[in-house]
Amino acid sequence: MIEALRKELLLQWRTRAQATAVFVFGATSLLLFSFAIGPNASALRQHAAGFLWLALLLSSTLTLAETFHAEMEHRALEGLLLLPTSPRAIYYGKAIANWLQLALLGIALVPITVVLYDAGTPQLGSLILIILLGTAGISAPGTLYSAMTSQTTRGKQMLLPLLLFPLIVPVLLAAARATSLIILGDPMAQGASWLRLLAAFDAIYWSLCGLLFDRVVEE
Amino acid sequence: MTSNNHRFPRAPYALLTLGTILLLTGSYLGLFVAPPEHFMGDVQRIMYVHVPTAWNALLAMTFALFCAIAFLFRGGDFKWDARMEAAIEVGVLLAFLLCCQGAIWAKPTWGVWWDWDPRLTTTAVLLFAFIGILALRRFVDDPVRRGTWSAVATIIAYADVPIVYYSVTWWNSLHQLQSSPATVSKSFHLPLRMNAFAILFLMTGFIMLRARLASLRLEHELAPPPSHELDAVGELA
After folding, report:
1. Is the pLDDT of residue B197 over 90?
2. Does A157 contact B at CB distance below 8 Å?
3. DSSP 3-state assignment of B41?
4. pTM of the entire structure?
5. Which residues of chain A have pLDDT under 70?
6. Residue B1 above 60 pLDDT?
7. How many angstroms separate the CA atoms of A176 and A119, rounded?
8. Tell me, what's the pLDDT at B154?
9. Residue A14 C-alpha, separation from nearest chain B C-alpha, in angstroms
10. Are the beta carbons of A212 and B128 separated by less than 8 Å?
11. What are phi and psi of B37, to 5 degrees?
12. Over chain B, what is the mean pLDDT?
């Protein structure tokens, strides 16, 4: 699994132009959301957390859709599956690589949110924790669905968000609420329960998707 | 795939007929015989179809989960794949009807068509998740992959239901408590029970018919092309 992860990270590093493009896409969507609301500073600040997570979610479909791109060329996936490791190791390698990439993307989008929406916060540590938990929730089912959709001949771009978005409603909800509480203040100390919900979601999907992955790639 | 598929399916049609008769009787009792509810008046009468629809939608989706597990872990018998497809489709239809009925009820009662209530939102999320699975099935041509992937997606989507429910409960809540014969007055029981069985019969009938259609389609898909088509190919070559 460590080898699989190392391969994915190396691959991501060699194609870092793509990560930059995804970041620009995320930043652009953050800019667009503010136009949809209008130049109302307090409304923008109110919605900042939701916009940050929407931007992250939309950009994540680009990253996730590319997960199996390299394996689809020259039928390399079959080669990988012939290796004396379980498909599970390949899955976790890819899912962790996606997770790290999405988490970095999320952290990179924070300054943009702060500047555009005046959504500064002193609690950077908690914010990073939320981003880590939230992106983990996106990456686990996202990687699994990406394995399916990248093997279809038609409708690749459409199917991934169609399958993924309804599923990660709880992630979006919990992460956006928790982030919002950090930005706007948390008088009732509700943040922790949202974090627990995210952690529960992560635990369920990281184990369930790992269990089901070998069914998805087997011939 | 047995020759069973080609016989006239008597059982589902019998169930559909029985279900229709029960639904008409139950709705008649609910609309004209049962007393109006004290606070909500006649609007409440939609409960006689709404609550049975809710039960059966959940039942259909649960059956889909059962079929998915059976397909994945029982050696990929396509009987279960066909049943899963049927159950998902009927479940989607029922969940859609459920959302419509809920909106019709909510407008005069709450003053809005839609509310971000846990059960409402969970139903909507479930509806979209299962529509996504139906879309996936349309885009995969290989029957083995189609069956396996949609079974995996069904299990994943179903596991999401309790999480969505709890997350939305914390987020917002307004829906009244579930109605069941235990929570409503005796005079409402008969039409409610009748309609519950009516929709159960209709659902079962539809699932059986749809599963039959799915396995006929699969049989057609897997069958070798008829000989005259082969001849045509030969001529082209």
Report:
1. no
2. no
3. strand
4. 0.81
5. 188, 219
6. no
7. 13
8. 92
9. 31
10. no
11. -75, 150
12. 80
Paired strand residues for B122: none
Rounded to the nearest 5 percent, the helix, strand and coil shares of chain A are: 85, 0, 15
Partner residues linked to B41 by β-bridges: B37
The DSSP bridge partners found for residue B37 are B41
What Rg, from alpha-carbon coordinates, does chain A have?
Answer: 18
User: B135 contacts in A (CB within 8 Å)?
Assistant: 155, 158-159, 162-163
Specify whether the CB–CB gap between B140 and B146 falls below 8 A: yes
User: A49 touching B, CB under 8 A?
Assistant: no
Structure tokens at A168: 């990660």
Please return the burial class of B214, using the count of CB atoms within 10 Å of its CB with bins 0-12, 13-18 and 19+: buried
Question: B92 — contact with chain A (CB < 8 Å)?
Answer: no
For residue B118, the chain A residue with the least C-alpha distance is A170
CA–CA separation, B164 and B170 (whole Å): 10
Do B176 and B155 form a contact (C-beta atoms < 8 A)?
A: no
Pairwise CA distance, residues B32 & B51, whole Å:
18
Contact A94, A67 (CB under 8 A): yes
Q: Does residue A155 come out as left (phi exceeding 0), alpha (psi in the -120 to 50 range) or beta?
A: left
The tokens describing B234, both together, are: 């030969």
**A207: nearest CA in chain B?**
B156
CA distance A170 to chain B (A): 5
Asked if B179 reaches chain A (Cβ–Cβ under 8 Å), the answer is no
**At B221, which amino acid appears?**
E
Residue among A148, A169, A200 minimizing CB distance to B164? A169
A199 close to B (CB below 8 A)? no
Packed helices A16-37 and A41-65: angle between N→C axes, nearest 10 degrees: 150
- Is residue A209 within 8 A of residue A143, CB to CB? The reply is yes
B62 residue type, one letter: T
Q: Considering only CA atoms, which of B99, B84, B95 is closest in space to residue B136?
A: B84
Find chain A residues with C-beta within 8 A of B139's C-beta.
152-155, 159
ipTM: 0.82
Helix (H) or strand (E) holding A93: helix A87-117
Q: Which of B139, B145, B157 sits opposite A159 (nearest CB)?
A: B139
Alpha helices in chain B (DSSP H): 10-28, 47-73, 78-110, 118-139, 143-171, 189-222, 227-236
